[in-house]
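Question (not urgent): is this output format expected?
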Amino acid sequence: QVQLVESGGGLVQPGGSLRLSCVASGFTFSRYSMNWHRQAPGKERELVATIRSPDGSTNYVQSVKGRFTISRDKSKNTVYPEMNSLKPEDTAVYYCNARTVTDNYWGQGTQVTVSS
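Got this back:
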């Protein structure tokens, strides 16, 4: 059974930091590119960050470049976005996504709220 379980969301003040986690199970984690998406209220879901397999190359949406870092620990089947210098516009539900050409798996999402 494929599972992606996100954690680490919460309330943080502007300028603060959070590290989300996504633990994967039920598939060969090392073969999948891993993505983080987010969806703010009233907006479409957007791709925020990607870490590819096998080379580990990364991509970020322009609005988070220099503030977010995505990484993966293959020994723990876990992918992390480290989010720094958070802004109110980063408020959203963040979703973990595992993808190959044929497969596309999603987690249930974790809420991140940036507010003073």
